[in-house]
Each structure stands twice: as C-alpha cells, then as structure tokens.
Amino acid sequence: MKNTARTMNKLYESLGKLFYAVAISDGSVHVKEWDKLKEIVREDWLSLDDFTDRFGTDSANQIEIVFDVLMEYTKSSEECFDEFKEFYKEHPHAFTEEIKTTAKKTARAVANSFAGKNKSELIILAKLDLLLK
C-alpha cells in the first residue's frame, strides 16, 4: 500500500506522541530531553522522505509540534504510547525498516539524554522494541 501525505503526517504526529511518552515516563520532561529530540529531528528525521504538510513544510516537523503541544497538556506516558501503538497497528505499512530503526534510536536517545535511562524509560523502550520487531 502506498503511503499518502495524510498518513505520513499522522505517522509523524504519532511519533511525537511516542517520544513524549518516553520523556514523560518518569513524571516530567527535562529540557535536555526536549533539546535532544529537536537535534535528532533535524539530523535524522527531516531527510527521511519528501512528504510535506498542508503548509509545505517537512512532515517530520510534526514530531516536534506534537511533543511541544503535549508538554502544555501533560498527557500520561501510557496514554501517548497507546495512541502510538494504535496508529502502528492501523498503519503498519507506513513503518519502513528505516523509520522503525530511527524511531528506536530516537526513543533511546531521548531516554538517555537526562541522567541516563531509568526504570520507567527502560520499560517503555522494551515495549517499543516488542512492538516494532
């Protein structure tokens, strides 16, 4: 199945939820986690594909936008991970091996960016690894 711009925008939105779930899993998002996410979006995500949103900007920017919005509304880690998981199950075709690998790498980097990985972050990383086999 061919991915549409709409599906890819939703993919990047769901990835924003995933990375927020990792960052908030210990109860708060530290500025180092936010900075690490922005760095990785610029270095890895923006060059993955050519999809753009309705404003003509790279769809991967949705990762940062959603993460930023979630910091204002403080959804739970579990709720955000479940929303990511639901999208993944509905649209597995959108997750190429490169996207899966980059998602795992990004999640680990966010978890490791502030005081190393704690138990709650290790649990969510393990759940992610099982989901994206």
Order of helices and strands: HHHHHH
Total helices: the number is 6
Q: Uncertain segments of ≥5 residues (pLDDT<50)?
A: none
| Average pLDDT for all residues | 92
Total individual domains: 1
**What is the count of β-strands?**
0
Report the span from N to C terminus: 20 Å
Main beta sheet: strand number and arrangement?
none
Protein model, in words:
With 133 residues, the protein is mainly α. The chain has one domain (5-131). Helix content is 68%, strand content 0%. It comes from Maribacter algicola. This is TerB family tellurite resistance protein.
Summarize the structure.
The protein is mainly alpha-helical and 133 residues long.
Core attributes:
6 helices; about 0% strand; globular; about 130 residues
Helix-strand blueprint:
Elements: H1 5-24, H2 31-45, H3 61-73, H4 77-90, H5 97-112, H6 119-131
Helix pairs in contact: 1-3, 1-4, 1-5, 2-3, 2-5, 5-6
